[in-house]
Amino acid sequence: MGIYLENAATSFPKPYAVMKEMMEYMQNIGATSGRGAYKTAIEADRLIYNCRKMICKLFNGSDPAKVIFTSNITEALNVVINGFLKEGEHVITSSLTYWI
């Protein structure tokens, strides 16, 4: 796979592992996290929570519940700018995405 440095409005190219996992999710789970108590919705919740735990560990965080996901950098910045943070808290962001 080649290097792709302009990833602001797209998500191309996707590594094979990402495509494989997304296909697995769409074929076997397909539920929206946080919207139900049935088996596949609970599995979607578990996947999201495990992702939060891994990101929390990566950044040496103390609480996976404080890891949030947004649709894009604009939404993330608006959440922060509009008073999400309390004094003394911090946010780690990056506008850089690249594939090698």
TrEMBL record:
Pfam families: Aminotran_5 (PF00266). Residues 3-98 form the Aminotransferase class V domain. It catalyses: (sulfur carrier)-H + L-cysteine = (sulfur carrier)-SH + L-alanine. It comes from the Bacteria. Its EC number is 2.8.1.7. InterPro entries: Aminotrans_V_dom, PyrdxlP-dep_Trfase, PyrdxlP-dep_Trfase_major, PyrdxlP-dep_Trfase_small. Keywords: Transferase. Its cofactor is pyridoxal 5'-phosphate. One of its GO terms (molecular function) is cysteine desulfurase activity. Belongs to the class-V pyridoxal-phosphate-dependent aminotransferase family. NifS/IscS subfamily. This is Putative cysteine desulfurase. It comes from Clostridium ljungdahlii.
